[in-house]
Fold these 3 entries.
Entry 1:
Amino acid sequence: MSLIVNIFFVLVHFVLWQVSPAYFSYEFCALILFLFILQNVIYFLRREFSVSVLSFEFFFGFSFLLCNFIYPVFYYETRPTIGMFQFGFNDKVITSSTALAGLAYSCFILGVTSYSKKSFINNFPRFRVEKIHLIILLYFSMFCFLGYIGFGGLRHLDSVYSEGGVSIAETGVFSYFNILFNIGSFILAIYVFCIEDKKLRLQILAFLLITMLCFALVGSRTVVISRFLILLFGYSLYVKRIKTKVLLLGILFGSFLMYSIVVIRSGFSVTNSVIVSFFDIYLDLITTNRNLYVLTDFADNNFKVYFLSAVYSVTSVVPGLSSFINNSFQLNSELLAGGWPTYLEFGSGSTYGLGTSLVGEMYFSFGIIGVVIISLLLGTTIKYLKFNLNKRFCYILYFLFVANAVFYPRAFYLLELRNLIWSIVILFLLERILGKKMIKLF
């Protein structure tokens, strides 16, 4: 029955995309929002989520809602130039782009839904993690974090968010320390609740919380949110299930806290910092709507980039390879992995970034076929990982998705490929050096 319902939603959204008018229609966008909510209600009423909706799908869906459906229904007619929407866009594509996002999400749900009675919670593995491996990873991560601070990484990040005129894309020695710290702290976070040594667990948690606080104080929320999601998910699975009501209250409190940090860091000068609507605290995500409109409009009227946009994500796995490829073939770096909306507005070398849109990037790369196939693959991949978490690769990849669940709808579709490969390589090297496996099932 679930399969038939999900196929029905996909067909309805495809038809809506086909017949979407070439002008803004509030009623049309509101209908798509209603269908999105209805499909989520049906999905999360499943027995799998009877205790808690805590999952990749929940956070991804929540972010997807804000990144694709809120602006046309709650902002366009009353506050059309709020935030980054002040830069302008073709408002004639709002309706069709919203319909496109609805199609993408319905394809994701079609792929991620399990059509058997198997519950992934009952099959979630219990790991025994070797203490020595995590001790080494803890010191490694501490060293990298101190190196990141020592070479000016935190100071650079502070300048990005407070002074302006500094690009977050600028690199230096601190960039390499940051990459290694992110990978090390990621591995620590996904296994911290799997260790029996309570003292070591507290030491790792203290380190993670201190680093999260440091990033929060300079205005960066990426590391804070990603590590928090991992810890939240790990705690719910290994320690105590977090009920839905508690989760929703926590999200609301955390959202206000993150928004408050931005406002305070900017000296209360953030544009529209006074909250008029409940959704104002999520403007960072809502402004992703503009990137969706810009990318779909450009793809329809100019060209699509196909596999070219994936060059950076694939080659960045090998240090220095992406720069070599770009320089050798004189590729337009703005076309690679999410830089096009910023380039269209500000040109090359901008110190200000507008981000991108997952659905927009799919369409910009491969058109409607890409939106359908990539969304289905994403959903199918998440489902496969959930049912195969006893395999190390699946466990790491699933938690990598969890860490980026909120950011994924506003990112490139090959997000975090480098961190995935490097995480596996680091674990492999640790085991080779120490001569024993880090993780054992019991």
Entry 2:
Amino acid sequence: MQVLSFAALVVSLFLVAVQTRRLGKQVEIANKFSTYESFSSAAERYDAGLALLYQSPHLRPYFFEGKALDLDADDLNRALVIADMMAGALSNALTVGEQFPDGTRQGWHRLATAMGRNPLFQMVLDEQPYSFTKLREHLGER
């Protein structure tokens, strides 16, 4: 009888170990999915800014060529709203990217570095000193 009880205990412990390992894998998969979903959300937010920029193509040089800010008030406000959206998306992607050990975030890092040198994005950062924490950290600001 004791041998049977001991065998049942060993089988039970083995099954618990197998279930625990499978649960760990499921949690890991769920965490990766959540992280990818967050990256997707950041990309959607960034793309929404690009869509607004598509509607005002004359603003494109201010975003991608670093053109000096010589805009009238309406265009400057429009450009600042778009830059704010894009900066938020970048900051979010950098935050999520810290969870990835596999280099998935490199494109976001390059984009953030390029945008950090842009006068329009610098104006957004200057206007909101307590926003875009990860973007500021990436650019070496505190």
Entry 3:
Amino acid sequence: MMNPRHEELAALLNDDQRRALSTRLALLDRQLTETEALIVGGRFEGAMFKIENRLSPNRTQQILALLQMARAHVARLRDRFELSVQREDLARHLAGHFGILWTILENSRAAKLKGFGDVPDQLSQTLDPEIDALVEIVQQIRSLIAPQ
């Protein structure tokens, strides 16, 4: 059963305002959740990047407590204003990311590096086949993500 007070608060927003607020709070909630995952997970790294947690244990606990408080506020606002939860299909989410990765790779070819200085011919012969291999992997992932 709907809380009558929540109905009153929800009536303060028109549909467009409700969607805008829902979207903004969903973005905040996502960042809060990702921040918590990075802090709790400790290390997050790949071959070309590393995120290191140099926060003291005391500061880490304070941040985690604040993240929890912020997420509680977001949940309270969701309930009070009857905001919709933003749902995203994983395949669509990944398709967007891998589309961006494809573009990044295409712009990483030797010819595209000319804007940063002279490009020796040998660079194209060495770099581009590796970029081609990565593009192929990204394309294979994209095809697996695509609806069947």
